[in-house]
Amino acid sequence: MLNSNREPIGKLISQLYRQNQKFLVKELLPYGIGSGGQHIFLKLIVNRPGITQDQMTNEMKFDKATTARSVKKLEEAGYIERRTDPKDRRSSLLYPTPKAVKFAPVLQSILADLDSKLTFELTEEEADQLVALLQKVSKNSANL
Fold first, then answer.
1. Sorting pLDDT into bands at 50, 70 and 90, what band is 1?
2. Where in this chain does the record put each HTH marR-type domain (predicted)?
């Protein structure tokens, strides 16, 4: 049975998400990367060159419109390029540009800094436990 005096999990996750976004918007603005998860898509494209928008939508659990907007903005900012899929002329494969490859370590540093700030008062074991618990909650949320 759930403790009715405990703060709702959804409320805490929402607060965490908003703070997370404020930090990322401030840190990524100088690089021309906005909100809406653009950094998540960029990181995925850098790590998996040649991925399609549909693959990203399915993997990241975003809707198609959000994926399309983020890809368009990343392309306009010079971070990614589309190439026609030789196996399916209707589909595009997404590749990082040299600008994206050069920026990838900076992005990783910003994300590591965020994680460090979020887990400041946690032990390594507590941080690992938090991640494991959040993965379970995330898995449960897929059934909502």
1. low
2. 6-139
Q: Please, are residues 82 and 75 in contact by the beta-carbon 8 Å criterion?
A: yes
Grade residue 27 by pLDDT with cuts at 50, 70 and 90: very high
> Mind giving me the DSSP string for 126-138?
HHHHHHHHHHHHH
Q: What is the mean pLDDT of the chain?
A: 91
Instruction: Specify the 3-state DSSP secondary structure of 140.
Output: helix
pLDDT for res 3: 65
Q: What domains appear along the chain, each with residue ranges and CATH number?
A: 30-107 (1.10.10.10)
- Could you tell me the pTM of the whole model? 0.84
Chain centroid, CA 115 distance in Å: 13
Counted residue by residue, the chain has a size of 144
Q: How many CB atoms lie within 10 A of CB 62?
A: 18
Which token pair is 141? 């949320």
Residue 107 neighbours by CB distance under 10 Å = 20
